[in-house]
């Protein structure tokens, strides 16, 4: 008779290694599946996140350039009266829509005794260079802000026009108010999707951009609705600060940062705009060149808007 078959010995070490290898493989694969690559640009796929602007290194550069321009335009990184609060130290600030990380980095350096946290649906910058009093969390804030009630003294929300579907924006404002401490300030930046005195090519771009936003459930002029929305959720002392950003060249020998930003924005919209207006890359290049020509000859500008308000403090009754 032959030898009885031996029951296979379970190799727990090998099984553990195989499981670890599988997890090591699946983790980046899962992360990759959270994005869609379209014509060389990377877009974030997540609940309620509109496919408008890319989430990649090019977008990080464009975003950071915009932050620098806004700081110069308004005279600071924020318009809400929080300088004293952040200077005294111990305050907690939340930035929503961190993008390329420049606002977060700059504010943390400016106010080293306060704590700054950035939040965004994707990571498109190197966190290693963040100051020690700052951190970043990747999270889909369209589904809620993952912090307890009354956590932050100040909240800053970036560039809402190309981000929030109108159907979820009210809920997002309520979430911002929820995690804001009583007496704390919330501030929202945005620009209406409109260029004042635009030339024909620039106007064509703006009309198509508005169409793209509307198809995605976005309101191109949502920034104008914010003051009333804040008042409805009992935010007090609501104020609006507006500044015109010129898009015309002032130096004949050098392109201004504003013109670079406009052309980078035109490029950022390329993928979805080609679908919206039904054009080829060659046709879109011609449109972009025509816009570049118009900034040389036409006095155009956009309005940049910061809206801020204060959460009601707890009231005591005698």
TrEMBL record:
InterPro entries in the cross-refs: Methyltransf_25 (IPR041698), SAM-dependent_MTases_sf (IPR029063)
MF terms (GO), sorted A to Z: methyltransferase activity
Record-linked Pfam families: Methyltransf_25 (PF13649)
Every Methyltransferase domain range: 94-184
Listed name of the protein: Methyltransferase domain-containing protein
Organism: Gigaspora rosea
């Amino acid at each position: 008779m032959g030898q009885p078959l031996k029951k296979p010995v379970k190799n727990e070490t090998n099984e553990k290694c195989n499981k670890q290898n599988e997890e090591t493989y699946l983790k980046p694969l899962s992360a990759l599946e959270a994005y869609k690559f379209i014509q060389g640009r990377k877009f974030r796929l997540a609940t309620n996140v509109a496919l408008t602007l890319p989430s990649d290194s090019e977008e990080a550069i464009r975003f950071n350039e915009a932050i620098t321009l806004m700081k110069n335009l308004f005279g600071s990184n924020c318009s809400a009266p929080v300088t004293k609060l952040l200077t005294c130290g111990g305050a907690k600030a939340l930035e929503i829509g961190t993008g390329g990380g420049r606002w977060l980095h700059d504010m943390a350096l400016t106010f080293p005794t306060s704590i700054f946290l950035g939040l965004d649906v994707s990571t498109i910058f190197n966190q290693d260079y963040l100051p020690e009093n700052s951190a970043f969390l990747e999270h889909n804030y369209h589904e809620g802000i993952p912090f307890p009630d009354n956590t932050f003294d100040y909240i800053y929300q970036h560039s809402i026009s190309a981000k929030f579907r109108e159907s979820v924006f009210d809920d997002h404002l309520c979430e911002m108010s929820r995690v804001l401490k009583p007496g704390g300030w919330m501030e929202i930046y945005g620009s209406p999707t409109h260029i004042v005195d635009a030339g024909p090519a620039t106007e064509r771009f703006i009309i198509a951009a508005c169409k793209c936003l509307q198809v995605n459930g976005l309101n191109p002029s949502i920034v104008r609705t914010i003051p009333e929305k804040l008042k409805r959720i009992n935010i007090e002392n609501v104020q609006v600060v507006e500044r015109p950003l010129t898009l015309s060249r002032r130096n004949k020998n050098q392109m201004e940062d504003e013109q670079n930003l406009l052309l980078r924005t035109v490029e950022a919209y390329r993928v979805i705009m080609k679908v919206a207006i039904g054009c080829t890359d060659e046709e879109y290049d011609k449109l972009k060149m025509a816009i570049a020509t118009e900034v040389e000859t036409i006095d155009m500008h956009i309005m940049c808007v910061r809206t801020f308000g204060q959460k009601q403090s707890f009231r005591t009754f005698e």
